[in-house]
Design a protein that fits this description.
Helices cover about 30% and strands about 25% of the residues. The chain is built from eight helices and 13 strands. The strands form three sheets. Strands 5, 6, 7, 8, 9, 10, 11, 12 and 13 form a nine-stranded mixed β-sheet that branches. It has a two-stranded antiparallel ribbon with strand order 1-4. It is globular and about 50 Å long.
Length: about 290
């Protein structure tokens, strides 16, 4: 069940924004953070929830797997940076995996996403562990270096499709405030020696990502395509990058990760990802919305 603070947070958001807000499970109740189980208000095991607009941009499998790939490639770190964080999905999932001593720094430009991000920090009790700021990542100059930087850039250039009327959806899907190359440039500025930059991008546009990463002065250490369902082509690709002084080899192309079997059931690989975020078999990144 959701805690009282979450119910109050949702009621306040719905009154403020005048629209339906859902509360969805970001992490499950079965995971451990820093070897200690999280507890809800009643003392029982608790996961983290995320408030989302019912009719807005909503987190999906690319966010989950970007965070997972960051945790697969980076060693445990005390701090990391998430670019274009939206409502917080990638950054918070990565924070979960890094343990209780870790801190997250994140930046988001959109008013509505930044508003929801702050609710997600407050209601999950994470304010003391997250430095969130509102601004354009293309102008970001924190003066600090991070051993891990993550990002889930918008996928499509302006004019390549129908721009959604909803501003949150439009900015999440289309490159209205920078493209994948801008994410890579922001990462380079803030990446510590030996650090990792992890991102996702559509597989059909893989060359755009590779070009943007290279232009920023980074090298792709390894990449992995994600297939949404058996028999379908890859949907998006995960990239793990480092600076040239930290990696001078050839890119490793890993075996694709398939999310679902042809019958719709999760593959064991995806079930293992889900277990890593605290969900037991048979559970999903689903909602607590009544």
């Amino acid at each position: 069940m959701t805690s009282n603070r979450w119910q109050e947070e949702r009621s306040g958001l719905e009154a403020e924004l005048g629209e339906r807000i859902t509360l969805d499970a970001l992490t499950g109740p079965n995971g451990l953070i820093g070897r200690e189980a999280l507890r809800d208000d009643a003392g029982g095991p608790a996961g983290w929830l995320i408030a989302q607009r019912k009719g807005g941009h909503r987190h999906s499998i690319d966010d989950v797997l970007t965070a997972w790939y960051a945790l697969q490639n980076s060693p445990q770190v005390a701090k990391h940076l998430d670019l274009g964080t939206g409502i917080g999905t990638v950054g918070l999932l990565t924070l979960w995996g890094m343990g209780q001593g870790a801190r997250l720094t994140c930046v988001e430009a959109q008013d509505i996403s930044y508003r929801l991000l702050n609710s997600n920090l407050d209601a999950n009790g994470l304010r003391s562990r997250v430095d969130a700021s509102q601004g354009d990542l293309r102008e970001l100059a924190l003066g600090r270096k991070f051993p891990l930087v993550t990002g889930s850039p918008p996928y499509f250039p302006p004019g390549s499709g129908v721009l959604p009327q909803d501003s949150q959806k439009a900015h999440a899907r289309f490159e209205l405030r920078g493209d994948v190359g801008d994410y890579a440039k922001a990462a380079v500025i803030h990446l510590a020696a030996g650090g990792w930059f992890v991102l996702c991008f559509p597989t059909p546009q893989k060359q755009r990502a590779l070009a943007g990463i290279a232009a920023a002065g980074l090298k792709v250490v390894r990449l992995r395509d994600v297939i949404p369902r058996e028999t379908l082509p890859p949907l998006f690709t995960l990239f793990a990058c480092q600076q040239p002084q930290d990696f001078d080899g050839e890119t490793t192309v890993e075996e694709p990760l398939t999310v679902r079997h042809e019958n719709g059931r999760l593959t064991e690989a995806m079930a293992e990802v889900r277990r890593g975020f605290g969900f037991a078999d048979g559970e999903s990144h689903g909602g607590y919305d009544p």
